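Wed. Picked up where I left off yesterday with GDP-mannose mannosyl hydrolase. The coffee machine is broken again, so keeping this brief.
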Amino acid sequence: MLTELDFLDVVRLTPLVAIDLIVSDADGRILIGHRRNRPARGTWFVPGGRILKDETLDAAFSRIADAELGVAKLARASARFEGVFEHHYSDNFAGEPGVSTHYIVLAYAFSLADSERLGRPDQHSDYLWLTPAELVARDDVHDNTKAYFR
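Structure written out below (tokens, as returned):
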């Protein structure tokens, strides 16, 4: 595992690869969380996370779904691949001045029936279910999340 200083070097020098989870409920609403962490702290964003070194996409998808949503053993095959997106942020996880963050994001969409129990308070301070139109209309939803619905 990387030290915080080593990871800061990675963020400074390379793009990170991540998976975003576009989760809908039976009514077509989308789950977004109010981010606790940098980058994009304080904005509403779909759940997601970075892929770890030597981690398969299937393992990363399952781990991220568990960590972000509290849904164990969710298979990537149950989701629809929405495409590759780029996310650029002027800040970074450590708040180090002058270090931006660049993500290459693989977006996956899926619906979950038991949507009332989703979310992890350690990842987001709050959660909302919004229709795509409501999500795009809000100023506090991050543009990188809105891009999935434009």
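Quick read: Residues 1 and 53 are 9 Å apart (CA to CA).
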